[in-house]
Specification:
By secondary structure, chain A is an all-alpha fold. In chain A, 68% of the residues lie in helices and 0% in strands. The chains are: A mainly alpha, B mainly alpha.
């Protein structure tokens, strides 16, 4: 596989830009910073095209550049102290509301069927609800979740990146998943069944 | 016997680290008996798979 010619690359970059942007926005939760990260990525992709080995697909390579930019931006956010501290997790009310004191589900919070995963993934509404629910997560919870599930980092890498303990990471991911599932179930199933 | 809340912790952690055999066993036992937790487990797995939608590899292979 060789390097695609410039015209072709520009076309592919234009085509992949919206996906780069929504990926960056889910991570950075700041539109301007997401735009900047994507812009830097596109420029780097043009400038450093010689380093595209052709081993992975072109879009995969571009996404790789974006992931670096996002991590850079997150590190800068962290240095600037704009992050709320990851509290050592007293109780999370949103979670406590889902369970009774004896550890069973509260009746109204019992998970219902979402049908087949393939059907969910093909539904435009599902993704709209997913994005809205991601945005609704508290910043510090969303950050850990997106590093794990969107960026694909291991919890060990996340701990190094954020300076938290692995145990803390698992607690936060558990909360993120419980919140997301509750939010999606509410938003999606009510949409689907008019 | 673990309760639902603990079961959701284990089904979440299962996606981030290998569970110990005792944990696997109590989770499996709980899931076999609890419909709500089985749904929750499917949803966690779906969320886990959903994160990969941005990965372009699959589309590029076409």
């Amino acid at each position: 596989m060789s390097i695609p010619p410039l015209d072709d690359r520009m076309q592919r970059l234009t085509a992949v830009r919206p996906r780069l942007l929504s990926f960056a926005r889910l991570h950075l939760r700041n539109h301007a910073q997401a735009e900047d990260a994507v812009q830097d990525t596109l420029e780097a992709a043009i400038e450093k095209q010689a380093s595209f080995s052709g081993l992975s697909g072109y879009e995969t390579w571009v996404f790789g550049i974006l992931k670096f930019k996002i991590l850079d931006t997150m590190r800068a956010q962290k240095r600037q102290g704009t992050w709320q501290p990851l509290g050592d997790e007293a109780d999370d009310e949103a979670i406590d509301r889902q369970f009774r004191r004896n550890g069973r589900w509260v009746k109204e919070a019992r998970p219902a069927s979402w049908g087949e995963p393939e059907a969910a993934f093909e539904s435009e509404t599902f993704w709209q609800v997913f994005d809205a629910c991601m945005i609704a997560l508290p910043d510090n919870v969303a950050r850990v979740f997106s590093l794990r599930e969107l960026m694909g980092l291991s919890t060990e890498e996340i701990c190094r990146e954020l300076g938290i303990k692995e145990n803390n990471c698992w607690v936060i991911l558990h909360r993120a998943r419980l919140r997301l599932r509750a939010c999606i179930e509410q938003g999606w199933l009510t949409e689907e069944t008019p | 016997m673990i309760m639902c809340r603990r079961a959701t912790e284990l089904m979440s952690q299962r996606l981030d680290r290998p569970l110990m055999w005792q944990e696997r066993l109590s989770l499996r036992f709980h899931l076999a008996m609890c419909g709500a937790c089985s749904q929750c487990n499917r949803q966690f797995e779906l969320l886990h798979a959903a994160g990969k939608r941005f990965e372009p590899a699959a589309q590029e292979e076409e």
